[in-house]
Amino acid sequence: MDTYNFLQVLIDSLPIPVFYKNIQGQYIGCNRAFGDMIGLPREQLIGKTVYDVSSQEMADMYFQKDKELFEHPGMQVYEWKVRDQKGQLREVIFHKATFTNEAGELSGLIGAIFDITESKKMEDALRRSEQQLKMLVANVPGIIYRCANDPHWTVEYISDEVEAITGYPAAEFVNNRVRSYASVIHPDDQDMVDRIVQEGVEKKSAYTIEYRVLHAQGAVRWVYERGQGVFDDTGKLSCLDGVIMDITELKVAQGELRKTYEMLMKTQSQLVSAAKMEVVGKLASGVAHEVKNPLAIILMGIDYLRHELKGEQYKNIHAVGDDMREAAVRADRIVKELLDFSKASELTLSSCSIYDILEKSLFLVKYQMDKNRIELKKDIAQELPQVVVDENKIIQVFVNLFLNAVQAMGVKGTLTLKVYETKFSQASEGIGRRRGDHFYLGESVIVVEVSDSGSGIPQDVLENIFDPFVTTKRFQGGTGLGLSVVHNIVDMHKGVIKIENKKNRGVRATVMLKSRPPKI
Amino acid sequence: MMSTKKILIVDDEEKFAQLVKFNLELSGNYEVSIQNKGKDAISTAKELSPDLIFLDIIMPDANGVELMRQMKGDPFFSDIPIVFLSALSPALEGTDPEYPIGDTPYLVKPVTKDQLLACLECQLTR
């Protein structure tokens, strides 16, 4: 095969239309692709000019371009539109170059046509989708970001909204150019943010965080962030993507709502307590009246019989009469205590042994402890002084604390009871709510610590533990009133109570009572 | 010793009133009458002219405190001591602003014979 033929085969095999013309503008050759494009076989094309294969208007423009190239020989590249055989407009790029004869004289041009219609379409589509994305990002009421999982949260991309929230332009954050995103997170929230992000990354799941950012002008703004790790094919984390929204207004509204709610709850609890006490009071006085009248008859009857039955032969009857009288007096006392209970705001103080109080309290919860197989560990100091308290009410306090501990542990566990005397000192600070009101420095106090080995109390619950209706046992029928009453009773005794999570495990309730009578 | 004194017990609890009567009369110093109907207490008292009246407070047909007020407003009763003898303590009874107990003496049921006698002695020798 000679060179000419070889070259013809070579260019025929190219999918790109190629043609060449002499200096007069007559086609002197082309490949198959070009022939297909204009719909003329090579043999028929040779010798024709562009005026023979195109409209006058198009041909003028082609001719003009060719003329320019011949005037400035070398390369010529330009974008153009041509109609293909089916009459469809195609976007193309012409690559043209002049060639010379053996004498070095300009003798023609060779051209190749690249069809870029498809890639143009894709380019347009890409540009449109980029624009759409930009519009979307601009309209999202929050920050869109992509950042590295490093201590600075080094920003690769962050949307302009960041300026509205932090007061700093987006560009300042990119690659930590002026500042890092970490630097605008509230110092108290940084660890929490990091912890939650790392948890999300580890689980390969989305994370959501609420935290504070510091605005350039010094204001603190609350944001809500939702993001997710982006992982490459090998499962390696490449970056973090997410959105950050300003929820400051929401937080303020939430705070107002919570305050209102708390106020409502307090009012409700006071109403409920008042209503309950009223019911108990009515019930108690009704019961008292109905029980005391028969008791009065019994006592009067005993007195009468004692008088009527005098003499040695009635000795036993007198003994029985004494027993009966004692029983009636005891029944009377129980009724009296019921009445006392209904008047909860009053204390009936007497000097009591803390040992007795704790024994009686433990006795009352013995059944629950045995049933749940709770082990009791006692660490109780010897020879503690008497406490001046309302015994029944203080028993109520300890029974409540013991039952809470038992319920917190479920089945099996250890209830530790530690009792000791100490001098009130600054080191005891943090105990109770109004400790300053109740104890002076160096005052002798009796401390009772009730600890369980349960799972502890969530911090948010712990903060409001003494408020009415705060309970972790709502579904077990807890009303959230138990500790509220306990707190009131201890407070009435000018004592203090504190409930905290232990360092290792479980909860410790600490009750401090005066070892001298409280002045009420 | 003084002569026999006349005592009126106003109480809807018949058996209690009866036993009080037995116990007081055993001492020989008292003659006790009983009125179980609160609303008839004033007429009975005017018939009897007792030296002292024991007055229950909670009765089905009358309120003892109201009766006391009526008596205290009547010159007939000006020299007759009135003592409440009720199952409820003054602390509970005294809370009703409609019926102030004032300084009227008060015994809380159940009482013993000795308490009754001590009370009578104190009230009648004033």
Give an overview of the whole structure.
The complex is a heterodimer of chains A (520) and B (126). Chain A is α+β, with helices and mostly antiparallel strands. Chain A is built from 16 helices and 17 strands. The longest helix of chain A has 61 residues. Chain B is α/β, with parallel strands linked by helices and 126 residues long. Chain B is built from 5 helices and 5 strands; from the N terminus they run βαβαβαβαβα. Chains A and B meet through helix 10 and helix 11 of A and helix 1 of B.
Could you say which structural class the secondary elements and strand pairing of chain B correspond to? Answer: alpha/beta
**Count of helices of chain A?**
16
Spatial ordering of strands, largest sheet of chain B: 2-1-3-4-5
**β content of chain A, as a range?**
15-25%
Question: How would you describe the oligomerization state of the chains in this entry?
Answer: heterodimer
The largest sheet of chain A is: 5 strands, antiparallel
Secondary-structure map:
The complex is a heterodimer of chains A (520) and B (126).
Chain A: H1 3-12, E1 18-22, E2 27-30, H2 32-38, H3 42-45, H4 50-53, H5 56-71, E3 75-83, E4 89-100, E5 106-115, H6 117-139, E6 143-147, E7 155-158, H7 161-166, H8 170-173, H9 190-203, E8 207-214, E9 220-231, E10 237-246, H10 248-308, H11 315-342, E11 350-352, H12 354-371, E12 374-380, E13 387-389, H13 391-409, E14 413-423, H14 435-438, E15 444-451, H15 459-463, H16 482-492, E16 496-501, E17 507-514
Parallel strand pairs in A: 12-14
Antiparallel strand pairs in A: 1-2, 1-5, 3-4, 4-5, 6-7, 6-10, 8-9, 9-10, 11-13, 14-15, 15-17, 16-17
Helix pairs in contact in A: 10-11, 12-13, 13-16
Chain B: E1 5-10, H1 14-26, E2 30-35, H2 41-48, E3 52-55, H3 64-72, E4 82-86, H4 90-93, E5 106-108, H5 113-124
Parallel strand pairs in B: 1-2, 1-3, 3-4, 4-5
